[in-house]
Amino acid sequence: MDSEDLNPIAGCQIKVDDMKIFNSTDGSFKINMHSAFSFRTIIVNSLGYYSDTFRIDTGSHSEMRITLKRKSALLEEVSVSNGTNNVLEKALKNISNNYSVCPFFMNGIIRLVSTSDNNYLYNSDAIIDIYHPGYSTNKKSEVKLVRNKLTILKRFKYDSTYLIRWVRNGYRSPLNFDIVHSKDYLRLDEIKRYNFVYKGKEVYNHRTVFLIDFREKSGTDPLKDKMLEGTLFIDSIDYAFVRADLILKNIRTSGFIPIKELVAHIEYSNDNGKYYLKRMSVVTSFLPHNGITVNNTVTYLRTSIDTTQVTPFGYKEKIQVSDASQSTNSLAGGREIAKIDSLFGKAERDKLISPIQYNIVDTMTTSSHNDSVLLQNRFKYQFADYIRNGGLTLGLGISKLPLSVLSNNMDVENSGMYSLLITDRFRLCGRFCLTFESSVNFGVGGISNNKSFNVYITNSFSINKYHRPIYISPYLGYGKIALDRKKSDLSVVYNNLLYGLQAELELTHKSNLYFSSSYYHNLNVKSTYGDPPFRLVHIAYSAGVNFKL
Predict the structure, then answer these.
(1) What's the chain's Rg over C-alpha atoms?
(2) How distant, in Å, are the alpha carbons of 101, 155, 292, 360, 364 from that of 374?
(3) SS3 324
(4) DSSP symbol at 1
């Protein structure tokens, strides 16, 4: 306990030889002292206190009271009369001392909530794991969605709210607002970007902290220029960032919807002598859209830390940028829902996460809509889900037509056989997809192939699917090659049976690198020039990138 006020000191480390334990929140601990030695030595450490050493009689079974002397903050503090930069610079330089430089896992819970004009749209309660590479490296942290529970509360007009349901990157918020690790906020070489005002000291979580307000030096128009401002809470002894309140204003856009203001609250807590992200909440206020104002709230709470056998998540496990937040593969079952409810219920009782006041409602629209509107909105919801789940893929690449030039007397060159290829692929059912391809060569080589297109059915299967998948897709369909030259009467059309094979390597969860080889079996040729000045070589190649919306 504290030697001055005799209050319990939680989180003390008690070391007996090679054994280490930590006391409970009420300051108590218990050690079995069975030993061949008459006396044992224990060492007690706690952040902000001087360590002490005690000798204990191993034959005694009585309780003992240990008091620690508090370190004097006056001896550790730097003078702020010379400006807040002294405090900030010392805090930034001490990051490697105050925060773990070794990789670690953080287990926690996160709640995503969308509200519209004081009405709840939906919420998603989830369990997530975070891999953190340590605070001494620029490597990025990773998030794995363990299980989520998605509850649709109410759906309004589709065109106003369907994008909100996606809440892209919602589960990645703890990474984006870990201000100590993110280089977007705290950098020693960018202190000059801000104006600082020292606001004094106060007691925060039983510790004395410096309060420093800051504001980004913006342009000439504070109502239009992007601006970051807030308050930093810096421990007066350890010089650790223990809390930050941020306000980001005048953000241009987020996805498709303009943001009015973003307010973030970040807390760090000490665990075994190192500070870790403990709690975070972010409230995003969007500008009114179609008469509706939408606010998104993300709240994260760390529940445990693991520093043993820490390795990065596998490729398939981690959530990437622009991944849709509602992963249907991670929806919880009955027992898992009970576990999620239990974790969030405890957090709400401890007032660490705000409860949601609602009766669960799952409706497609409000009851005032007529049948035709209900059907129309239901189709729009289904189409949005179809796209969100990877139903539509767009591709961009380069293709080579299966032709070669026989004669140059018409100033036609082989360079005209290369084209920009645009692909639209629609998932039909299971592994089957319908693909449309169109090409354009912009008249290069003295000839145009802008009317050429392919349409075919693919059947895909994957290998290495638990890591970075490779997709193999045989296909069969129809291919039309149409060539014309405006300065003459040359017009040639090849109608072909098309079949081939495409291989795709997944670059991200949303993009694939592809290479395909096609065989054109000619059905007929139509030419306005007699014998066309081309030779069909049958084999065509293309390569590019496919993007899932």
Answers:
(1) 32
(2) 55, 12, 20, 20, 8
(3) coil
(4) -
- Cα–Cα distance for residue pair 251/246, rounded to 1 Å: 14
Residue closest to 237 by CA, chosen among 273, 209, 213:
209
Question: Which residues are registered as beta bridge partners of 231?
Answer: 213, 245
CA distances from 471 to 370, 421, 425, 505, 513 (A): 44, 20, 14, 7, 10
In DSSP terms, which residues pair with 478 in a beta bridge? 455, 497
Look-up of token digits 């996805």: 255
Domain extents in the chain: 13-71, 85-349, 390-548
Find the largest Cα–Cα distance for the chain. 111
DSSP string, 336-383: HHHHHHHHHHHHHHTTSSPPP-------SS-TTS-HHHHHHHHHHHHH
The CA–CA distances, whole Å, from 383 to 15, 177, 194, 377, 532 equal 61, 33, 46, 10, 45
Query: Does pLDDT of 403 surpass 70?
Result: yes
Tokens read off for 316: 């398939």
Strand runs labelled E in 171-308: 194-204, 207-216, 227-235, 241-249, 259-271, 274-286, 294-306
Q: Dihedral (C-alpha) 332, 334, 339, 340: value to the nearest 10 degrees?
A: 40
Average pLDDT over residues 521-537: 82
What confidence tens digit (pLDDT) does each residue in 378-397 have? 666 667 667 766 788 999 99
Q: What CATH number does the domain located at 85-349 have?
A: 2.50.20
* Token pair in block for residue 346: 């405890």
Q: How confident is the model at residue 435 (pLDDT cuts 50, 70, 90)?
A: very high
pLDDT digits (tens, 9 = 90+) for 289-316: 666 677 888 899 999 999 887 888 887 7
- Under a CB-based contact definition with an 8 Å cutoff, are residues 526 and 493 in contact? yes
With beta carbons less than 8 A apart as the criterion, state whether 279 and 300 touch: yes
Higher pLDDT, 212 or 44: 212
**Parallel/antiparallel/unpaired status of strands 13-16 and 453-459:** unpaired
Among residues 76, 56, 78, 73, which one has the least CA distance to residue 65?
A: 56
Q: pLDDT tens across 248-280, in order? A: 877 665 455 567 788 889 999 998 889 999 999
Q: What pLDDT sits at residue 520?
A: 93
- Alpha-carbon distance values, 497 to 426, 478, 538, 539 (Å): 21, 5, 10, 12
| pTM summary value | 0.66
Q: Is 522 helix (H, G, I), strand (E, B) or coil?
A: strand
Q: How far is the C-alpha of 225 from the C-alpha of 285, rounded, in Å?
A: 17
Residues 390-548, CATH architecture: Beta Barrel (2.40)
CA atoms within 13 A on the CB side of 286: 25
